[in-house]
Queue: 2 jobs
Job 1
Amino acid sequence: MAEKPSVLRETDDEARKLARILLRSARSAALAVIEPASNGFPFVSRVLLGIDTDGSPVILVSALSTHTQALSADSRCSLLSGEVGKGDPLAHPRLTVQCEAEKIERGGAAHARIRTRFLRRHPKSELYIDFPDFTFFRLQPVKASLNGGFGRAYALDGKDLLIHSSAIDDLAAMEERAIEHMNSDHPDAASRYAQVYCKAEGTDWRICGLDAAGADLASGDQLRRLEYDAPLQSAGELRMMLVKLYG
Amino acid sequence: MAEKPSVLRETDDEARKLARILLRSARSAALAVIEPASNGFPFVSRVLLGIDTDGSPVILVSALSTHTQALSADSRCSLLSGEVGKGDPLAHPRLTVQCEAEKIERGGAAHARIRTRFLRRHPKSELYIDFPDFTFFRLQPVKASLNGGFGRAYALDGKDLLIHSSAIDDLAAMEERAIEHMNSDHPDAASRYAQVYCKAEGTDWRICGLDAAGADLASGDQLRRLEYDAPLQSAGELRMMLVKLYG
């Protein structure tokens, strides 16, 4: 049997965008690791998901858990994102990403950045995010497999899921301020974005993330991703983009 | 670090029952396998789940898929079941089961039995269940990990998830007839079971499985498991159990 069976479709920009949205709008995901204690048995469990400013998924895990012990011994892992909705569970799009996990040490700039973004996305994680046994891992995508529903399978590279922009750091530096400004001074913008671009309902949406490739929108338990058509290449483009999308 | 950290609780019958219900009421699950083509990288994807008469989970998969190719090379796999509901995704109970996968050859009694039960649980799979590239695997539970919510972790043996009864085969032989009788002649029974024992709503429930340890109940997209307090030990006990539960 061929390793890339002919059922795979040609990977196009639409598939890449769907894959990014499935990853970046997921609150939780299934994480598969290789368990060292059982001679390499796979082990899959549920984790909360965050996204770093370069698009890498991040997870917050307890050192007491099987997945953390496994990742410390073998950094290879796989995430499944995409929710099961009404009807046939296999008719809903989902994304498998295979990643290399990298532990984020406390005290560094990466930890502070990831912690802040994670808290905005998962406010209730405040209860345990600073517990000494909790650690962030950044999961560097190696390759991915998108299943857009029956007969709609695509293979992706890891880099298809990363954000390629020279403005990542500049935008990260202004992210918190920009979010506060939007949510305070333009409180209807997030709901408009969610309704127009994410097929969401309701009027209590807020922005919980802004990066070079798009905006994260939250309302209660719901999370949506507004993915721009192309990443911003300078921080100065952010304001115009948000105005343009407001319409 | 100890392999069994002290956060694990003593596994009791209540935990075992919750674990069985999480597995047996799942329509779909995340399946983690070890991908041979990438030198043993874990790979997690979504599968439809069925249950054999001895409680073993079964999956129906396409030979073209990564997970099927992986299982054919290394039978070790892991399932994650338990749905994410409102609020914090990690507050909802979920079950990780590590299994050895066994391919079910067409033409045998096991295939016919598994196919019939799977079709009743997933009527829409009729569209592809007999495609030549689709295969059933029975997943023999080796061990499991129940997470009942924050701080409620339990380790289980594989046998905790299997049905131990001398009546399995006799009940399997009469299952289809008993289901037809119940759904035709006592059409309100399934809804009553779902409401009283499974905290479900609605009045259009039907029985879609009857085994020595309980009943599977379906309504549209919903699936619930009524797990008896103890397995039936003779097929003759089924009628009395269903009458008693009806109240």
Job 2
Amino acid sequence: MKKALVFGGAGFIGSHLSAELLKDDYHVIVVDNLYTGTKANIPEGVEFLERDVTALCVADFPKVDEIYNLACPASPVHYQARPIETALTSIKGVLLSLEIARRDKAKMLHASTSEIYGDPIKHPQEEYDWGNVNTIGWRSCYDEGKRVAETLVSDYVRLYDVDARTIRIFNTYGPNMLRDDGRVISNFIVQALKGEDITIYGEGTQTRSFQYVTDLVNAVFKYMAIEKSELRRFFASVRLPIPVLNIGNPEEYTIKRLAKDVLRLIPESSSRLVFKALPSDDPKKRRPDITLAKKLLDWEPVVSLESGLKETISYFKR
Amino acid sequence: MKKALVFGGAGFIGSHLSAELLKDDYHVIVVDNLYTGTKANIPEGVEFLERDVTALCVADFPKVDEIYNLACPASPVHYQARPIETALTSIKGVLLSLEIARRDKAKMLHASTSEIYGDPIKHPQEEYDWGNVNTIGWRSCYDEGKRVAETLVSDYVRLYDVDARTIRIFNTYGPNMLRDDGRVISNFIVQALKGEDITIYGEGTQTRSFQYVTDLVNAVFKYMAIEKSELRRFFASVRLPIPVLNIGNPEEYTIKRLAKDVLRLIPESSSRLVFKALPSDDPKKRRPDITLAKKLLDWEPVVSLESGLKETISYFKR
């Protein structure tokens, strides 16, 4: 039986990955400090270690076949409450993953983020883009922590030939999101269900791309199925120094349209739209170029916003 | 007697700072692993601890009044040989400095770098600029390590009111540089003194700004002399969230002109100019906007390239 380690496996995306790994007959070890993860998210059948990844070392783990590094608060409301811990979770979590992957010659998935592109100058974002990120702002703990984590992955790949694969995850939604994570889809749904005002920051004309979580999980499984030598050949052929893929849904929606769709799908809601000032450092727009993922994985997002929202709304109703 | 801690005090810039602190009657404790620092650089009279900052903790240090965090290899030739250690030195060195500063309510100088601006899109660089940096390249260990270090400083300032001051040091030269650090001024001087070909990467039309080390040291002393409350007022008035200053010389020289100046100042040299291809990720151009430093410190660089080069050439001759 193959063993997989999932850092952050009680979180939104980590819990979906853990569930799929279980279906594939893996022995799954979840490590989560439950800061933003919840016990309710953890699928039955996993081995659960309630620990902070920053307090663990390689010797704490048995030999594993695969490592999924997803431990890090990802919502501004959470990471801004603990900025130093957030940066350190990114850094120490990826170092621990890399050291285990190196010891066990395991495959490793590193969850990076579209936030490494910051407030991008050109659209859509390609893997070749370097990003436009503030080092000293309120969002920096997450953005810069994730950026240097990518750097550490790259150097472990170059120096120690570690079989790490980086994905840059764009805006993702679905069941198991936290109600209070402060991100736009959960905010709108929760506000609509409670009959509260739906808050739009700015004029609502800023666009976002929204990926349903099962599309992301499918991409991850296809990515992890590829053998190292084939991966290396592919990324060398597209002139990227290490395996790194944008995974997201490139369809664009304005925030205002999203709010209206949510209200349409919750016809019983009595909520109204209200507009507030944009917070500082808020990324204006982000959309993935997924050319490389399509080519390498023969994958593209298939879940429409309509059906993804329906699933998510019924999750939040429960 | 005031106590000052200098991480990287056996290095090029750290050794000059240590010497000036001694002149000001400080008890100076230098911590250096001698990877790029040398014993010869350490001024007589300091307490020297030959240790790696990544292996130390707060309890290893007595109460100090000031901390200067300069521990990190800064030349591509050195940091690319140890990329992971370089990133970790940046990260752990700044965390240790911040924790000591927090414990002792000490003033702290954090040495950041113009490299956080990467390959800038606009010139000159202002403190407000976010930079254009590759996360997965060969230079990333230094650039991204330094970027996230700035982030950690910012969050310690915001959360714990630590009295940290960040400087972004632009290209600096002078005595105590390593002969083999691979940077352009030491390369050219050493090549000229040996009668070897002087290597210019690209066409030599790329410009650089060069700051003589005593100008930098003067800026640092003026910066550290300012009281915290005054600093905070100043940076709030210029709409920067934390104290951060560019320190460099904005005068621009082409690499080709520098090579010719070096040859003119070493008339006995038999060297010729040769041209090679630009390495990947090489920053094309960088020049500091020092408006804020001028205003806050009543400072500007006063040493001409001519006289700085003369001093540096006579150092390398010895």
